[in-house]
Amino acid sequence: MKKVSLLSIIALISCLYSCNFKNNHSNETNADSVVVEKLVIADTYHLSGDTAKPACKVVLTMEIPVKYKQDSDYLHLQKILSPLTFGDEYTGDSLKQAAQKVVESHVNAYKEIEPEFEKELAKSGEAYSFEWDFDYTLSPVYNRNDFFCYGVSSSEYTGGAHGMYSNRYYTIDLSNWKRIGLDDIFQPDSSDTLSSILLNRLMKQLNVSSPDSLLELGYFDTEDIMATENFYLTDTGICWVYNPYEIACYATGQTSIEIPFKEIDSYILPDSPVRRLIK
């Protein structure tokens, strides 16, 4: 069998463009939006360096900030996003630096199982469980009005019946370079009311009339449906995203619940930054 060394692919696609996000289909670059550039970092490593054997495949497709109002703004934003999207150990890294380290860490972890793989292959002749796949997509979902909402979509498979996927969101207020959380948006003691609003909206989306009906659709205890930090902004509201196993079984899939500002306006702080979006 043909032997190959570690295959490393780092492809930089250098087309600058303004992100086409969910609620703005214009290709124009606004003064209050961030210019992003597409970057793909990928690596494939076959066990024992043999292309006929299982492999670890890692692909990161990113839209990274490359320009904002001041020359240094884009790098400052990247360094805010790196620990949020990849973990605290990547504090101080640009998104490209962090992504390269993430790819390397997955490949190195895979190399450590080579002795186990050889042993299992000799014993059973089965190798399918040693296929690893990691696919990440990072891109802004809202990029205007001095807000930058960054979405991280991940799909991972390291053996077993099925892989795991998730979508995480991080919103940065570009007027002060801080991440926006629930405490920056809502009045204290509003969590129970928000939970009720989210539950009613979900029932409306699924066309059911009672919370018990959600249980039949694979949802867990309806008390688990509450406002979390996993949300992104739109021009007209806030969208919460719940990944598999958070409020429902895997088969039910991901749940998104968008609440218009007009339904929650009375619970939003008077000085909340999101009031810039409320007309």
From TrEMBL:
Residues 183-262 form the DUF3298 domain. Gene3D superfamilies: Fervidobacterium nodosum Rt17-B1 like (3.30.565.40), Heat-shock cognate protein, ATPase (3.90.640.20). Coiled coil: none annotated. It comes from the Bacteria. This is DUF3298 domain-containing protein. It holds the Pfam family DUF3298. Residues 79-165 form the Deacetylase PdaC domain. InterPro entries: DUF3298 (IPR021729), PdaC (IPR025303), PdaC/RsiV-like_sf (IPR037126).
